[in-house]
Amino acid sequence: VHDYLAVCPRVNLLPRVDGPPCADPSPADCDACIAHRPPRGARDILSWRAEHAWALRDADRVLFPSADSRDRMARLGPPMRAVVAPHEPAAGPWRVRAPALRGKLRIAVLGVMSVGKGAHAIADIAALAGAHGIELRLIGAPQGGSFAETAQAMRATGPYEEAELPGLLAAARPHAVWFPAQWAETYSYTLSAALDAGLP
């Protein structure tokens, strides 16, 4: 399970793409959200969940990449045989190997800069960062053209292949990586890359 499609037609539980996610909405709250902006042909939330329940209820096992994603789905979906199966190996704690802080604080944002991934927050911080001794770097690219100017100011690397990400992180030498996503992501490959690099 890598999104919340089975329990919500808005796969990331965002009523508005630039706002906070739903916490534990009532069916009435969900129906009001659907009526305001009908997504994916949904009529009402209980019908939506009933139509999708079989995928969770009838499976031998439903694999979740985190306990958080399992718990969110369990609160909203049918009974299921849920198993937490993290993508990360359980080899031990991650070691932080951030570079020493000298000069500007370098913060990296990874992947596609989209509204759901926090593009508005990134743009707001990017506008203030230089005046406060912070260098914000986008290792990736903006989605579409709406945040191209912000990405240019951040000296974005542009799109990359997954295998290139460790090298791009090493070249940028950030002190920290920021994940400003607006929703509780089920899993993030860019987070894994940051952890593998030893970055906070």
Q: What spatial form do the alpha-carbon principal axes imply?
A: globular
Helical proportion, percent range: 25-40%
The biggest beta sheet, please? Answer: 3 strands, parallel
Structural class: alpha/beta
Total number of helices: 7
Helix and strand string, N-terminal first?
Answer: HHEHEEHEHHEH
As a percent range, the share of strand residues is 5-15%
What distance lies between the first and last C-alpha atoms, to the nearest angstrom? 26 Å
Contiguous low-pLDDT stretches (5 residues minimum) are: none
Number of beta strands: 5
How do the strands line up in the largest sheet?
4-3-5
- Computed over alpha carbons, the radius of gyration is 19 Å
Name the average pLDDT: 89
Key attributes of the depicted protein:
200 residues; alpha/beta; three-stranded parallel sheet; 33% helix
What does this entry look like structurally?
There is one protein chain. This protein has 200 residues and is of the alpha/beta class. It is built from seven helices and five strands, in the order H-H-E-H-E-E-H-E-H-H-E-H. The protein has helices at residues 27-36, 45-57, 67-76, 119-129, 148-153, 165-172, 189-196; strands at 62-64, 82-84, 105-113, 134-142, 176-177. The strands form two sheets. The protein has a three-stranded parallel sheet with strand order 4-3-5, sandwiched between helices. The protein has a two-stranded parallel sheet with strand order 1-2. Helix 4 links the parallel strand 3 and strand 4 (134-142). The model has no long low-confidence stretch (mean pLDDT 89).
